[in-house]
Structure formats: C-alpha cells, structure tokens
Amino acid sequence: MGRSYHDDNYGCYEIRDQDDVDFYFETQRASRRKKCQGCGRMVKIRPEYAYCNSCADRIERGGDF
To answer: Are the C-beta atoms of residues 52 and 36 closer than 8 Å to each other?
Structure first.
C-alpha cells in the first residue's frame, strides 16, 4: 500500500494496511460538507468538528482568526 492521502479531518497521512483503509472510508462516510469556522471554506469534516485540519493545526500553534 504505502499511499498518502489528504483529508480535511486529519490532513495528510499514509495508508499502510487494511485497518488504515477501513478507517479512511469510515471517516469519509461519517463526514459532511460544511463551512469551516476558521477559514470559511466548504470542507468535508466530521459533524462534531468545527474546523478543518489546516485551521485546527493553526489553532494548536497559537494562531488566531
């Protein structure tokens, strides 16, 4: 396997085995298109999330909107 994927929930990550594939598809099934409260883009994220991965990373590094 060893392929990299990008996802608005978790950013870039590598899929190494079937468990990773299953997790990726489950995350995609559970995600919904919604407006990120940070950047305002329409992204596909889990319903309980308010920010895309890029904005969440920015917040963790002390960034502000």
So the answer is: yes
* Closest to 49 measured CA to CA, from 28, 29, 32, 25: 32
Residue numbers in the chain where pLDDT is lower than 50: none
Predicted pLDDT of residue 2: 72
DSSP-assigned states of every residue in 2-59? -EEEEETTTEEEEE-SHHHHHHHHHHHHH-EEEE-TTT--EEEE-TT--S-HHHHHHH
Give the C-alpha separation, 38 to 23, whole Å.
25
CB 8 within 8 A of CB 52: yes
d(CA 9, CA 3): 17
